[in-house]
Amino acid sequence: MTLRFVAVLMILLGGVGLPAQAASTDGSSTAGAHQRTQASSRYQTRLLRQINVERAAAGRRAIKRVDGCADTMATRWAVHLASIETLVHRDQTEVLEACDFVWAGETLVRGTDLGPRRAVGAWMDSPPHRAVLLMARARVAGIGVRVRDGVVYVVLNLGRPT
Fold first, then answer.
1. How confident is the model at residue 28 (pLDDT cuts 50, 70, 90)?
2. Based on the structure, what is the number of domains in the chain?
3. Rounded to an integer, what distance in angstroms lies between the CA atom of residue 84 and that of residue 133?
4. How does pLDDT run across 29-45, given as a tens digit for each residue?
5. Beta carbons of 99 and 69 less than 8 angstroms apart
6. What is the CATH number of the domain that holds 124?
7. Which InterPro entries match (predicted)?
């Protein structure tokens, strides 16, 4: 059996905020759902781009793709965190097993007026979060974003597939 490594951060960030373009409403219309999906997709693209700027500056390879499994796991966790209105890490064994990864790391951030640059900046200012973002083993990402009552919850799962 392959030895699996798990990186879990227990430092929780709060009090930083989200841009209007990433905010969503709780409307139930199909058009509203489509707009929220588009805003979330743009936010995720910008977040991954900013992560790769930091990785390049540190001499690390870019995260070139979003992994479907990791993305689903991150999205579900962001929904959960928004529902309980707090940040808590899940056991990364769940991500390792569900996504068939040999390594997984997770970072969380929440706040208002929290654009991708501010989210990544908050992670880079925290040594344990920075370590996960710059982990050489990371190859793929999953990004979950959920807005509740004006507070944005962002979950980043990085992984290395088998």
1. very low
2. 1
3. 25
4. 444 444 455 577 899 99
5. yes
6. 3.40.33.10
7. CAP_dom, CAP_sf
Q: Closest Cα to residue 147, out of 34, 20, 50? A: 20
Of 5, 56, 48, the closest CA to residue 162 belongs to 5
90 within a domain of the structure (yes/no): yes
Domain, as residue range, for 89: 36-159
Paired tokens of 73? 């796991």
What digits encode the pLDDT tens for the residues 57-88? Answer: 999 999 988 999 999 999 999 999 999 999 99
10 Å CB burial of residue 80 (0-12, 13-18, 19+) is middle
Determine if residue 80 is left, alpha or beta; phi over 0 gives left, psi from -120 to 50 gives alpha, anything else beta: alpha
**132, 92 Cβ separation under 8 angstroms:** no
